[in-house]
Automatic annotation (TrEMBL):
Pfam families: Gpi16. PANTHER family: GPI TRANSAMIDASE COMPONENT PIG-T, GPI TRANSAMIDASE COMPONENT PIG-T-RELATED. GO terms for cellular component: GPI-anchor transamidase complex. One of its GO terms (biological process) is attachment of GPI anchor to protein. Transmembrane segments: none annotated. It comes from the Eukaryota. This is Phosphatidylinositol glycan anchor biosynthesis, class T. The lineage of its organism: Eukaryota, Metazoa, Chordata, Craniata, Vertebrata.
């Protein structure tokens, strides 16, 4: 692609609503901003920003960032109940960045970038350092232009304990051209979004080819949320925009070239009824399956009606039935007892009835869990499954974590288990967290694969298509790319008795106080001779003498 002087910036927004078989509601916001510039060229400087946020543009230019992907998630995506999300993300915070190949000090740029992003998103990204940063060799390839293979310019890190709150959502909304004043962003009410079963917000920046004629930068902001209307007090299996977000739509963003709402009606009309109805229908191939959607174009005045308000309502007609199991699923847990050794189990499921396919497993384990790599075993159907590719980088104490990447062939309709033993290290007392008995978190494992598709995937992206189906490039018609995250682990480490210094201080002070008090009392007390008292006969005689006025006996 070449830079085209006639191109202009563009902004699109979409909301995809998918009723889940579990009775939950999956809502996915997609915001896409195209920036027609190429500031990575030599001598190219950018001083004008129209739709693209200036704060992010300056970050990309200063640190020579080629791609940036950051996500903040609260809760865990339940794949077996909800299916696959459009764009997956692990619990906590995740950040992975591709730097330009002209960067000489990648670690220095990475450290400064995490501190800057920590300030932009009001997050704890400044806790990302070399002890929790890895350089994957095959798991995270660029999603934009270019086919970078030198993983020296890639950095990946997670903070599984990061808490997502309103402080992270507010700066995220300010990156939108219309903010939260107009368009789909008016539905983003913090009280409702964080009172949900799952919440994830992300920012993805990459260079793309705009209409195969010009190079542009794409900023994609996504927000995924799953509402459980039963636990939220709704009672009935029905939902509306007002019930979910406590607001309705009144207008599209004036700066948006496209503003649409999609409702997945693939199971309609057997399961639910949608109102108001719309004559606009669309189809898209999403995650290897052809889905049908009702489309509401917010740029058309008739969408809002006479009340100038748009509120979708869905009523369930019957039981939702069973959901088809996803073709790829993974989970992880810790086995063992005691506080010395343990074992990490990663289980990967291939639910395809007759197709085998390879998966790439990536594990990043902190240095204080010392892996015994010779105990690594991979079994499928009670047989050894030898990986065709293994990349292992051992950890250095207090410098870098373990990195393990494996390419494993999954037999059809099988369960593959990966196990490795570890030993817990002893930390310095200053390295423990304020609540060490809670445990230490280990980031999620990442499983990447090209899964066989039920229908032919589209490899030609010259035609317009929904944003939720065009994020990951498709290179083959027979398969689609899927990335699955497992649960994070919570591991207990040998913890010293932090109350012992307090007890020692109290005991020492008590002993010193008692000893010093006795010694000081001996030094300052005045001693007097205590004469023995006279006998009773002598005291009576002296009493008589005193009455008579006679001198007393001595």
């Amino acid at each position: 692609c070449k830079t085209h002087p006639g191109s202009v910036d563009e902004f699109q927004e979409e909301l995809v609503i998918r009723p889940l078989h579990s009775g939950d509601i999956y809502a996915s916001f997609q915001f896409r901003t195209l920036w027609d510039t190429d500031f990575l060229q030599e001598g190219q400087k950018v001083s004008h920003y129209r739709l693209f946020p200036k704060s992010l543009g300056q970050v990309l230019s200063k640190f020579s960032v080629r791609e940036l992907h950051i996500s903040f998630s609260q809760g865990f995506w339940r794949t077996m109940q909800w299916g696959q999300p459009f764009i997956p993300s692990p619990p906590g915070a995740e950040l992975w960045v591709w730097f330009h190949d002209t960067v000489s000090d990648v670690d220095g740029n990475w450290k400064e970038l995490t501190n800057v992003l920590s300030g932009i998103f009001c997050a704890s990204l400044n806790f990302i350092d070399l002890t929790n940063t890895v350089q994957p060799s095959a798991s995270f390839k660029p999603l934009g232009l270019g086919n970078a293979t030198d993983h020296r310019f890639l950095r990946y890190a997670t903070l599984p304990r990061e808490i997502v709150c309103t402080e992270n959502l507010t700066p995220w909304k300010k990156l939108l051209p219309c903010g939260s004043k107009a368009g789909l962003a008016v539905l983003m009410k913090s009280e409702k979004l964080f009172h949900s079963s799952f919440h994830s917000q992300a920012v993805h920046i990459r260079p793309i080819c705009q209409q195969c004629s010009s190079k542009a930068w794409e900023l994609r902001q996504t927000l995924n949320v799953v509402f459980d209307l039963h636990t939220s007090g709704q009672g009935k299996k029905e939902w509306s925009l007002f019930k979910m977000f406590s607001r309705t739509l009144t207008e599209a963003c004036p700066l948006a070239s496209s503003s649409k709402v999609y409702v997945d009606i693939t199971d309609n009309p057997e399961l639910f009824e949608l109102s108001p109805a719309t004559p606009l229908l669309g189809q898209a191939v999403v995650l290897g399956d052809r889905r049908t959607y009702s489309v509401y174009d917010l740029s058309r005045a008739e969408t809002f009606g006479q009340l100038r308000s748009f509120n979708l309502l869905l009523r369930w007609k019957g039981d939702s039935g069973d959901m088809l199991r996803p073709l790829l699923h993974a989970e992880r847990y810790v086995a063992g007892f005691g506080l010395q050794t343990g074992e990490i189990h990663t289980v990967i499921y291939n639910n395809h009835p007759y197709r085998a396919f390879p998966v790439l497993l990536m594990d990043s384990v902190p240095w204080y869990l010392q892996l015994y790599i010779h105990t690594l075993t991979v079994t499928s159907k009670s047989r050894d499954n030898k990986p065709s590719y293994i990349h292992y980088q051992p950890a250095k104490d207090r410098h870098r974590p373990h990195l393990l990447e494996m390419l494993i062939q999954l037999p059809p309709h099988s369960m593959t288990e990966v196990t490795v033993q570890f030993e817990r290290a002893l930390l310095k007392w200053t390295e423990y967290t304020p609540d060490p008995n809670h445990g230490f978190y280990v980031g999620s494992s990442v499983v990447s694969a090209l899964v066989p598709s039920m229908v032919a995937m589209r490899t030609n992206f010259t035609q317009d298509q929904p944003l939720f189906s065009s994020f990951v490039p498709v290179k083959e018609e027979s398969s689609y790319f899927v990335r699955v995250y497992t649960e994070p682990l919570l591991v207990n480490l040998p913890t010293p008795d932090f109350s012992m210094p307090y007890n020692v201080i109290c005991l020492t002070c008590t002993v010193v106080a008692v000893g010093y008090g006795s010694f000081y009392n001996l030094l300052t007390r005045t001693f007097q001779v205590d004469e023995p008292s006279p006998p009773l006969s002598k005291r009576l005689a002296n009493l008589i003498r005193r009455i008579r006025g006679v001198p007393l006996l001595t």
